[in-house]
Design a protein that fits this description.
With 306 residues, this protein is of the alpha/beta class. The chain has nine helices and twelve strands. 35% of the residues lie in helices and 22% in strands.
């Protein structure tokens, strides 16, 4: 049996055909236009799904969407990064009508977590947390090998724990959320602010993105070094909170920021270890990258139906 998995991100939507072993047989990516009406965007997705049906034996569709969802109605209730035009649209019913396939919806970080739990390097772990570090910060929790969903499937919004109640205002309306400090968006905004003090930085007059900032950090650029040092602190504090609350076997990182590799992982591991994984004497928590990387969203979405 093959299933279509759809991973809705901040800037693009990835769509793939996945078999029962979690292998992607075919995948494509389409850009998101924030001004495009939600129904129009879903119609474009349906055309791609229907084109897959002509070649592959497709039994259903799983879709991972960022934000807080009403799973009973198949709708997006809140998304701090994108999809404003998707609100109040029954995504499940719309795609079902357009494709004549079973459609299952869940949060994007939840489905990426499912992919790692079912098919990833740490698939045999009892407890696992996945953090997605991209346009926003998302997360998913596996407890006793099952996905933790919370009341009405609206729990595990790990990007919206507050690390400073008097801090930055987040897109969700609260203050000091981890997303406001540890997302790629936050990293870029912090870099723009600090460049005013460092006119000789390698980053001056550059069109900033995460890769450029980490490359400057690798070259020991002072402005980039300050921003990244702060970033490690912010993300490290969030991770310590998860260690204390959940004490998982492993916390996995994915998303665009994770492309920094050991430039991110090494100091982050050192920070968490220095702070005793949250509380001295408690069980250590392994910190690593997600093994499925950019495919986790597609595979996890498909696993909702597999």
């Amino acid at each position: 049996m093959n299933v279509v998995g759809i991973d809705v991100g901040g800037t693009s939507i990835k769509i793939g055909v996945v078999n029962q072993k979690g292998r992607i047989l075919k995948k494509v990516s389409v850009a998101i236009n924030p001004k495009e009406p939600g129904l129009t965007a879903l119609s474009r997705l349906a055309k791609t799904i229907n084109s897959f049906k002509k070649t592959y034996h497709v039994k259903g569709v799983g879709i991972g969407v960022p934000g807080i969802l009403d799973l009973s109605r198949g709708e997006v209730l809140f998304s701090s990064t994108t999809l404003n035009s998707w609100h109040s649209i029954n995504i499940v019913k719309t795609l079902t009508n357009l494709t004549h396939l079973k459609v299952v919806l869940n949060n994007d970080a939840n489905v990426a977590t499912l992919a790692e739990a079912h098919f990833g390097k740490y698939k045999n772990k009892e407890t696992l947390i996945l953090l997605t570090l991209g346009t926003g910060v998302g997360g998913g929790i596996i407890s006793r090998r099952k996905l933790f969903m919370g009341n009405k499937g609206q729990g595990a919004e790990l990007g919206h724990i507050s690390i400073d109640i008097h801090g930055r205002r987040c897109g969700c309306g609260r203050h000091g959320c981890l997303e406001a400090y540890a997302s790629a968006t936050a990293l870029i905004n912090d870099t723009k602010k600090i460049l005013k003090k460092y006119p000789n930085s390698l980053l001056k007059n550059k069109k900033l993105n995460g890769k450029i900032i980490w490359d400057a950090y690798r070259k020991k650029d002072l402005a980039a070094s300050i921003v990244i040092r702060n970033y490690i602190y912010y993300l490290g504090e969030g991770i310590l909170n998860y260690c204390i609350i959940f004490r998982p076997d492993v916390i996995l990182l994915t998303g665009g920021i994770a492309n920094a590799g050991n430039l991110l992982l090494k100091p982050l591991r050192e920070y968490v270890k220095k702070n005793h994984d949250g509380i001295s004497g408690t069980a250590p928590v392994l910190l690593d990258f997600a093994s499925l990387k950019y495919d986790s969203g597609i595979i996890g979405a498909a696993s909702l139906v597999l």
